[in-house]
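Hi U.,

Before I forget, here's the chain from the pilot set. I'm dumping it here mostly so it's searchable later in email.
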Amino acid sequence: METDQSRHLKHRDLNWLSFNERVLQEAEDRERNPLYERMKFLAIYSSNLDEYFRVRVSQLRQMKRIEKSIRKKLSLQPNKTVKKILARVKEQQERFGTIFKDQIIPDLAKNNIRLVSDTDFTSVHGDLADIWYTTHLKNTLETKLVVPSKGNSIFIENQTLYFCVTFEDDKQFGFVKIPTDSNSRFVDLGRHQGNYYITFIDDIIRYKVQSLFDHTVKGVYEMKLSRDAELYIDDELDGILAERIYKSLEQRQEGQPTRLLYDSAMPKDEAKKLRKLLNLGKIDMMPGGRYHNFNDFFKFPDPTENPELHYAEKPFIPHKVLEKSKDYFKTIRAKDQLVHFPFMTFNYIERLVEQASTDPDVTHIKISLYRVADESVLTTALLQAIDNGKDVTIFIEAKARFDEENNISWGRKFEDKGGRVIYSYPRIKVHSKILMIIRNENDKARRYAYIGTGNFNGETSKIYCDHGLFTAHPKITKEIHRVFRVLEGELIIPRNKHLLISPFTTRRIFEKLIQQEIDTALEGKPAAITAKMNSLEDPDIIALLYKASQAGVKIRLIVRGFTCLIPGVEGLSEHIEMTSIVDRYLEHGRIYLFHNGGDEQMFMGSADWMTRNLDRRIEVLTPIYDEDLFKELRAILLIQLQDNVKARIQDAEETNTYMPQKPGESVVRSQYAIYDFLKAKN
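Structure:
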């Protein structure tokens, strides 16, 4: 475990690897996860790791540019940290390879699905590979010969698969760019004697690689280079930030290399020549398996169409009020409503916007979009609202990593229709998930709002566990209106007494609530904090939680991703218990519950306990005032605390041990238990 001993903090980047290990555990879980779902977890692990190297490792590498004396004063040791990262990643990659070779491949074979390589092709497979190659690849493959000793060079594109080909004459390298469209990564070689045969497009190219070069091929090794994915855009106030982001996206293709993943079967002397040819350091080299880009396994074909190889479908649970509602405004005006994804459909949000787009009494629609979905009911309804003369304001976060291009593209569509589009601000991101509709009722403007923990994205809502509140509460909606006025540049600071709004009041109110529990505990009274979030990193919040633990406050945390807090340390954090749930769906909700002397307070919204969420982003968390909804959300949180199937204990040693089932205790797989709870309730 890597810690900052002076502040008792885990290193966030090293602890993140512990989170990705939990994803690997899901790929190993033969007992509870069907075969194709385990392949998807391998894909998730691979995709996570790619982004990690492109962003976090890249950032560590950028620290090397800081003057050594300054790094020393700040206790920055990027080289040391990167070496530890590479050592742990190497261990995980070996585990990944073992899962794939010793579990996935044999389990596919048990189900009559044979994933064959070029060396296993029968004559029939060879003929089919020839036909497929001639039809789809022969005239489109990009190849290049490079003689390293003559100072030649080659540019390797970011996140793109290549073959590095060696020859008997040992003087040059050949490079073949492998098409990376995941829809065609796997090729069906037909059915024979009850077995279905599938191969990688990579293996078809291997099979034909000699025909691409005049020299005698000696070895063929797959490789992929990851480059720095951060957009280093100066934060000047002049110019249109969205335009500058859009134009700078190409930097990602040309950024500094952060990892060369290559086939470990490549001889060391050849790997050394390749490293020098690409001008990489030893630390950049990451040996791996025969295949890369495992995120393509999200679309691995199932020729058997066997339902047992996949999770059983869980139909959406109809919301007992919204499902029957013909008039969402009347329904929400009468009582706050709470929705839970992916157990319920995202259509409830879409229907509200659809109704608002055609309602003659609706005058304004305002929404903040962090990751814009492809064309959807929501985007269509917003465009329709503009067509119908509504005043539509859309705040689009142009700096949402890896979604910049799509977000800006959608912003232009809304602008072209006549909507008011506001893009990112320098130095701050807008991460809030808020919607406001203003409607004329009895000659007065009434506001309706939605505040959520997840993005306004119908596709991700099917796999992310999130919560959303529909409300017409006058004080909450008034403060939501003030948040939008800040986004529109009409206010500098939104006065608020109910919402937690970053970067204005969230930190101060959370610190006050934690301190209140500390004071209560010191008086010898019951005190408790229960919180669920994606990541826990802010050192000041962590220091306050340590202080609370030392005062006797009972603290129970659920943190899906990385954490810098060290739980269970005697004299420091023995009253802090922390688990992480990784399961079928991605845990994404943020819920904060404070005992508050028996009069519990609960907040739900978009902010984690991370410095960026507290100080550098526009975030909104709402109190839950409706008594019924409070009980509902609290019950969901308690179910997650009881998980003894997919919850892992987070401890100082980062063991990722599954929460044990105690004698006489019921089996609780929280995501399934929440589904059953909501189904019974609705």
